């Protein structure tokens, strides 16, 4: 991950066809707690919530962090739509945002799985981030058993970088890590262009030095 001060994502409400990503508020705790306390949802996360006060503390930490606008609540625009099934009447389906600079983190309720909400939310957040120009690269750390999460990231353009074993211990035991990344469209080309320009300048300087020594 980038070892820099966390860049601020411009405060915004991000909208996609079915979802809205908005900044968190303390009143979100009641709807978030059932999600963040679910053992299957939080299977590969060390931060499972054991009591409602854990969720309240989580939101307080988000809101008091140096970059609270980097964390979003995922909300269904039409929570009573028949396509949502068991989600009817519940508007909040999860959280998504950046931690430690440029590492993406997200959690979606089990009832929302398999509907494409995670992919839709991540594509919306990445598009907003690229347009804002705040990050050149976004990284992810996923347990290799979390196939649903890996598939979602790949749909959004993430690619494999490296893997490591026994990186985190959760309530299911030790977890491994698959590291992935995605870069802002055009960022790699600009990086390569700058690298080539630096090489050319170095060659010119070397040639000039050689001529002077003759």
Commentary on this structure:
The structure is a single chain. The chain contains five helices and eight strands; from the N terminus they run ββααβββαβαββα. The chain has helices spanning 29-36, 52-64, 117-132, 147-155, 187-213, and strands spanning 14-15, 19-23, 71-76, 92-99, 103-108, 137-142, 159-170, 173-183. The radius of gyration is 21 Å and the shape is globular. It has a five-stranded antiparallel beta sheet with strand order 1-2-3-4-5, sandwiched between helices. Strands 6-8-7 form a three-stranded antiparallel beta sheet, with helices on one face. The model is unreliable at 1-5 (pLDDT under 50). Helix 1 (29-36) packs across helix 2. With 214 residues, the chain is an alpha+beta fold. Helix content is 34%, strand content 26%.
